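re: the backbone from monday

yeah here it is again, tokenized this time
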């Protein structure tokens, strides 16, 4: 199974009321946004496959940030601007994707 995987680094911010969204809920928000957009996501391996994303550092609950990182994995290449705008449109107020680049 030599499936090509496209990895993207997304920089996002959490401000205002969004600071009360926990780390696990942020991961769920990314997974749901990717599914709603109909993107060709990669699934994790294991007993309960999920949309594969990685957020290396957990932000403390209640803390604001303008430069959090998330890595997203897709089965085909995506246009960065459309991906950034689409994800931001799916997020609640206070959360915004500010940058996306292929890794």
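seq for it, each position gets an aa:
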């Amino acid at each position: 199974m030599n499936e090509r995987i496209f990895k993207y680094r997304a920089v996002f911010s959490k401000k205002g009321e969004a600071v009360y969204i926990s780390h696990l809920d942020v991961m769920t928000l990314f997974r749901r946004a990717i599914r709603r957009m109909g993107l060709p996501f990669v699934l994790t391996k294991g007993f309960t496959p999920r949309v594969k994303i990685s957020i290396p550092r957990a932000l403390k609950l209640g803390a604001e940030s303008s430069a959090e990182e998330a890595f997203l994995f897709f089965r085909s290449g995506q246009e960065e601007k459309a991906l950034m705008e689409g994800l931001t449109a799916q997020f609640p107020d206070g959360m915004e994707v500010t940058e996306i680049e292929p890794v």
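The mean pLDDT is 95. The chain has one domain: 6-102.
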